[in-house]
Amino acid sequence: MINTNISIGQYIPGDSIIHRADPRTKIILSLAFMVIIFMMNSFWTVFELTVFVLMAVIISGVPLKHTLKGLKPLLLIIVFSALLNIFTTKGTPVAETVPLKYITYEGLIMALKLSVRLALIIISGSLLTFTTTPILLTDGIEKLLNPLKVIGVPAHELAMMMSIALRFIPTLLEETDKIMKAQAARGADFDTGNLLQRAKSFVPVLVPLFVSAFRRAEDLATAMESRCYRGGTGRTRLRQLKFTHADIKIVLTVLVFVAALLIQEYMW
Amino acid sequence: MNRPNVRMLAEAGMTLALAVILSEFVKLFKMPMGGSVTLGGMVPLFLFAFRWGGKKGMLVGAVFGILDLLIGGFYSMHPISIILDYPLAFAVLGLAGFFKKSTIGHIGGIFTGIFARFICHVASGVLFYASNASEGQAPLVYSIVYNGPYLGLELLITLILALIILKFVKMPEQKSATKA
Question: Among partner residues A74, A134, A196, which is closest to B156 by beta-carbon distance?
Answer without folding.
Answer: A196
